[in-house]
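chain below, 417 aa
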Amino acid sequence: MVDRRSVYRTVDRVLNTVRLGSIYGMRLDTNPVPADWTHITKIDPESKKKVPIAFSRYLRYTDAVSVGGSADVTDENTVETFRLLEYVSTPAFHEPSEPQHVTEESQAKSEFLAVPQVLNGTDEAFVADFGAGVEYIRETMAPALLSNVPLLSSDLKDRLAAILTGVMLEAAVTEAYIIQNPESAAARESGVTEADLVDPGGAKHRGLAAEHVLQAEILYLEYSGTFGGEDAAAMLEAIASGLEWTRLWYGGGIDTRDKTAAMLEAGADAVVVGDVFHRIATEETALTNQYLNDRGPDATAPGKIGVWIEQEIDVSETAAAQYLSTIPSVTDPIATAQRCLCSGVRARSRLRAEFDSSSTSGAGKVSESTLRAVTDAIGGNVTDPKLFSQRLIEAIRNKEQSYIPASKFDVTVGSCG
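prediction:
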């Protein structure tokens, strides 16, 4: 009599051998994370982390956007961030720090779900947190998806929920982390202390485990807010020597072209940039206030802003130029930053003038000059810049009834900054 379990195990082994043969024998790139991504921009849903009005102009140059953070992130502000990014052509994926941040809407709007796994943290962070995520999918998300299917017995629903759980986890991307900054929020969340930091040899071992045991699509060397320098370069070289299929990413303190180049040359497939992008929003607001104070009533006249920025601002020292300099494909980050800052300041100046006027005359139709300024700031990286601009202006006027999260721009009626 045929042993069915033996047959099943044989089939499973054959399929796995075929998979390994395609990856390591035939060198087929089956990793769903694109190999040509070299620059990732991280947008934190946390309410304190703002984005510039000209956000889509900047994001046209990055390869992808990662949505996620370690502090004050909720399912609500995660969905709001994805609602903002759904208009942008740059692909966005979700990197949740808690299972509850994953919702049907966030899944529908993201390119893929990247499930973090910290390789040098506590057992709680590695095993229990991942188990909690599986539990959330198995006991909350899957049953919710099946709730509207009629005539299912409880036993069949349970089996289908188990299948759906497996399918959703199979579709997700595993993002293995090595965290090397014990002072960071990510380290605190995952229990990484000074004693848990690894050397290049230990990093390589974790990289091998990530690829061959976890089958992780991404290995992320994370210095979180600080630049790893030569230490990070040595780690990347060691890790890269053991990886063939897994993408190797570096994040932490990237704010210049030289830092990007150093990490890519050391073996990283991509760098992840976050803090400097959020600083552009603060900069855009500050420059708008400075410009309006300098130029007075005629500040919004055509051509004035570009001249003022050129004469008064050292663009090379701005967060905008720093961010753009981290993107290898941007050949002239200073000139590009000047154009982006000019469009952002013009849009904020026009919005401020519009709302100051409407506060005394009552809300009415937005002027064509304001709509043009906001549309120019948004740029061509959205499906319909004019329509998006109209919706954004309406959202700023009426935040409580808005689909677009206007609060992410830090623009208020009566004070554009």
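The longest strand covers residues 173-179. The longest helix spans residues 333-361.
thats it, cya
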